[in-house]
Structure formats: C-alpha cells, structure tokens
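=== How it folds ===
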Amino acid sequence: MASEILGLQKGLFDYMKKKASEFEVEESPLLESFKKNQTNMASRDFEECAIEDLLKSIEDSRLVFLGDFHTFDQQSRNLTRLMRWMTENESIMLGVEFVQQDKQEAIELFSDQAITAMEFLEMINYSESWRFPWHAYKPFFEMARKKKVEIFALNSKGSLDERDANAAFKISKILDDNPESKLIVFFGELHIAPNKLPHRVKALLPDVKQTIIHQNLDEVYWKLKEQDDEVVKFTDREFCLQTSPPWVKYESMVYWFENLCEDPDFDLHQYLMGSGTLALNSNVPENFHYLCQELSQSLILNLDEESLEDFNLVDHSQIPIIVEKIEKLESKELVEFYKTLIARGKSFHLPGTNYLYCSNYSMNRLSFLAGLHLFETVQKDKTNLTVISEDRINFFLRFCQQNLIGYFSSKLINPYRKTDMFENIEKTFQDALEGSNEKKNAKLFLSILKEKENPEELKKLLDGHDSITLFYVGRFLGKFLGEVLYLRIFNEKKLLLQYEEIKERLFMSQASLDNFMVFTNLILPGETYKDLRKRSF
C-alpha cells in the first residue's frame, strides 16, 4: 500500500503544479533568477532535527526570518504559533512584506483599533497593491494586538533587488531603535534565501544573530525519510518548517488565481465580508472527482468510474439546495440534526442521497469528503435511516466510522494534518469548566477508550446522549483513530500486512459495536494510546 500512496502523492503534486503553472504569465529575468536561486538553495543537503533545535536558535537570535507563500494560510498560522511561543518570555516586534513602508500609519491606526479592517485595507490600497488572502494575515494582527507586539511595514516599490535593499535598511533601523526587542520578519520565500535579504541585513548589522526559517519547500519534502517530519536544518541557523505537502500549497495558488487575482469586478467590501468562508468554484468538482479516483486506487478499492461520478457537491452559497434535501428525510430528529450541522459549519454526507455539503472550501475538507464519498459508494443501498435515527449506538458508530475514513483519507492527501490525541483530550477534560460541553465530551471520549474491550460498558456509556453530543464525540474519536491508523501503517510500518482486514472493517462493513471493538483493539492494543499527543506545528 505504501507504493500506492507515494504514487498518489506524486500524482497530486504534478496535477496541482501543472494547474498552477497554467496561470503564470511571462516572468522577468530577475524573477526567474530569484526563483532559480531559491530552488538551488532548497536543494542543498539538510539533516532532520527536533523542534527544540529550532526554538533554541530562535532564543539565541535577535532577528528571525520566516518565509511566506502568499496564497497559503498555513504559513501565517505558523507565524501566529511562533509569536505565541516567543511572547511568553520576551519582547518581540513583527515586520511584514504586504504593507508598503509609506503606509506605516495605517498599521498603527489599525493596531490601536482606531480604524476598521475595511478602512485599513483601503488605506494600504490592498485591492491593487497586494490582494492575497486577507484572512491569512488577520490572525497575526489579532495576536499582535493581544500581546502588544508592534508591527512594521517593510515593502516598497521597485525591482526585487531594490525592495530587498530597502527592506534590509528598514530592518536594521528597527533593530537599532529597539535594542531590547527581537524582530520577526514575515517575507516572501524567494527573498529569505540566505544570500538575499538576510545577507543584506548581515552586511548592515554583522553582529546581529539571525535565524532563517523556510516553510514547506518542495525539494525538502521529497527528500524526507518520513513525509510528516516537522523540522530540518541546512545549518545551525537555517531551518525549514514542514507543515504541509507541496500540492496543498499549489492548490491554494490555483484557488487565488481563479477567484481574486484577475477579477475585474473585485469588491473589497464583499471580499472582506466573505474572506473567512471560501466558496467552491468551477474547478472544485473536477478536483474532487480527481481526489476520489486517486484515493480509490490507492486504498485498493478500485470503484468504477461511473459510481465515483455520482455526487453533488454543494457549499454555503447553496444552502437552500441542501436544506431542501434535508427536509425530505423522514425522521424529524435527523432533519433538525443536519440543520444544526449546517449552522455549526460542519461538512457531511447526507444519508440516502448523493449530496455532500462542504461548509468551507479547503483541500483538507475536500479530501475528507472524498473519503466519505468512497465509503458511501461502497455502502450504497445498505444505509438504513431508521437505524441511524433510532439506535443511539449505531448513530454514534456511524459517525465515528465516517470520520475515521474521512480523516484517514485526508491524511493520505496531507500527511501533516493533525488532530487532538489522548494527552490533548485529557488536558481538555482537566482544564474545562465543570458542566461545560467541552468537559462532558472529553469525559465521554476518555471513557470510551478505557472501556474499548467491554461491550456492555460501551453500551451504557453511549445510551441516553443527544445526537449532537454523539456526533462530536464520534468525530473526535474517528479522527483520533484515523491518526493512529496512519501512524501504525506509515510511520511504524506495523499494520501493512493486515491492510486487507482493515479495509474490510473500514469500508465494506457497516457500523456495529463488534466491528468497532475489533478494529479499535487491532490498532490500539492495551493502553498504547496514552502516550499519543498532537504535533507542535
């Protein structure tokens, strides 16, 4: 199976990179030179290292460069995580590329909440000067406001070389003016190659220690021994943080080109209001079908082409369509349940139909729904809506099985995807307020794991809970089991020989307590789950 998954990943990479390249225009010689330089730098030898090595280098530096792939919000999420960690013990500042230096006043007004986000974006001429997804940048502005981190504009007009030179001068001035603080610079990946912007700053401030952190480099990904390793280092002060496979990055670029880049009717107000809810576009059903085909082959399901084409994928802009289908369900409880899922922004397959609801477009959600589509295609004509609505145990087990399959499928597409593990859920249980839904759900999750070999106790635990509770706990547990299954097969190489049995219990069998217990104890013998925790990045 490992060879099938590698083929899936290489196929996805070629597919998405080809689609991204179709949008590219003729490049200037200088941009081609910067890209070639970045590729050469990324192709150097490296060694895998622990996250602690990276954090130690950051602690010992006054200047930290972090690479940005402008259309991909995973890069800015990592910036927010680093800021959260760094502000625990020291004073930091942030320099950003996406604002021109002559618009510094706009940053200060927005940071002080003297103007709205709309006014800020208008002041910096966002719709003309940048237009990359605002929802990717907004979280670290909020973090900076909360932690009292000053933000500086670093960009300027001119050629790539001139912009680097101007940014280097500005960085050196910020550090000179603030000798007690560290500066994080969030700048395009092409610019933070060690012989570009970092080299220019070094020439101005030779005694200032730097750390360079690249993000999600293609060349690094394909050389990794385990393709979910977090950190590698080129030198003691130059690292690469790997938190996503490259095809997810290029997919974000395709989405941006199709939706924002060349939109002559771009409306800043409309974009700002909807930037947190990304809609499907004309290419998404095609991409979804491609994912279903590739996953079917890689999971050795080999479903026929006609059955995989039998789907209707809808999003938040088509809510009336999915609500109309929901209202045709015979069970009033199921009708209310699925309407609640829509209200809470959850994605799902509607039982008894070929409709899939994608609450908010992303590659993770699409691949999750692709897994559900495969499962429902295999299980076609076996779904019993009466059992789902009336039997609490089977209701829970169905969502657990669905989420297990969906998460495992999305993990094959994105090996860096993560979910809460035992230690994280245990901490939630300990920290959550008494009587809160968080605490109740965490307690039920932990109790199910504890009684996973005792059918009578499991029945008692699951009886009497409302649908939403069973959905959420089934979702947590399914994703947890999907993460463990991936770990056991691909990292530990323990369950490859049992894959046919796993496939039978995952896809071919309907949800049942017996099936759940056999599967759970196969991948989680004894109490081996207690040492598992979510990765850092």
Residues 441 and 473 are 6 Å apart (CA to CA). DSSP finds 26 helices and eleven strands in the chain. The longest strand covers residues 92-100. The chain has two domains: 2-25+47-274, 296-531.
